[in-house]
Amino acid sequence: MIEIFKKKIQESFNVSIKNYEQNYKSYHWKYQIGKKKNLFDTYNLKNFRSNNLSNGLDDQFYSKNETNFLFSTLVKEFGEEFISQMLDNLNIGNVNDCYKFKDKYYSSNELFHIFHLARIKKQFDFSNLNIVCEIGPGYGSFISKLLKLCNTKVILIDLPESNFLSSYYLKSLFPNKKFFLSNDIKDKITKENIYENDIIIICPWDKLPEIKIDFFINSRSMMEMNKETISYYFQFIKKFLSKNGYFLCINRYYKDTVGYPIELYNYPFDNSWKVIISEESWYQNHIHFLFLRRINDNSGDMLQEIKKIKKITKRKIKNDPRLIRRVIPDFLYKTYKKIKFLILKK
């Protein structure tokens, strides 16, 4: 079945590349994708986690000892049964540093996704979800874990190069689910397209019909977007989020690979967000974990929380391993990055 589906993946990729709206691709992704532009052939999908196709989307740099420590910590906190439920039966993509637990496979990357969902599960009922949308799902690891918790419909929005991988990865895991890809769009995406399929994988420029989405996820990709794209997605979330819907936002306190610093405390949050969880991410102290609920007025507490996150960010900068980031005042550093970026773009 997956071999037949590969043809659909390639056709969807070709259509998306043809219709590419380059403003959605930051300098970060121009650089990352440029390193693997000759790899986007379905022949390479079988080994996409070992042939560089998943680079930039796949944390494989943890050692065996570090991975074993993270895994044992998960098992101790959440139990063998739950962790085993979250693992895959196959080593999809043939990751090199792959480990086995009983008859299941895992690598370091997905252990963080398992923890994040387990953290939410303590106070959130996944069975009530009708539609979930992940913005920037990469190769699909995070959403695959959620689909093991509940049989919800999912919409994934990412660049064609990531959709190329997630289509293969998720179809390999869930062969019986109905997939809708960019090449299935006739004139526009309709409500029927959404309701008749299980996994919808599209690009940012593939416009959705007027539907309501219960839960939005962005895990470690807004920090690699231009400010304009971040603003676009915040408006997108506000438009499509259902009443009292949820937003999981897991991103670095700051990152500057788009050509200038992208800081979490400058994301366009408003006070119509109620903070459920706000904390440093599990064993990744450069990342913040935010789980929020949308409310119908301005009585939320997000703006107060942003002030706390800003203070944390300033402390993190003082300990940055790069000397230039530690010693140069923030406004001078941002000016330096912008000038450097403009020079590199020429």
Describe the protein in words.
There is one protein chain. Helix 1 (2-18) packs antiparallel against helix 7 (160-173), helix 3 (64-78) crosses helix 4 (80-86) and helix 5 (108-121) packs across helix 6 (141-147). This protein has helices at residues 2-18, 27-34, 64-78, 80-86, 108-121, 141-147, 160-173, 191-195, 227-240, 302-318, 323-327, 330-345; strands spanning 99-101, 104-106, 131-135, 153-157, 179-181, 199-202, 213-219, 241-252, 254-255, 262-263, 273-281, 284-294. It is globular, with a radius of gyration of 20 Å. The chain is an alpha/beta fold and 346 residues long. The strands form 3 sheets. Strands 5-6-4-3-7-8-12-11 form an 8-stranded mixed β-sheet, with helices on both faces. It has a two-stranded antiparallel ribbon with strand order 1-2. The longest helix has 17 residues, at 2-18. The protein has 12 helices and 12 strands. The chain starts with a helix and ends with a helix. The protein has a domain at 233-346. Helix 9 links the parallel strand 7 and strand 8 (241-252).
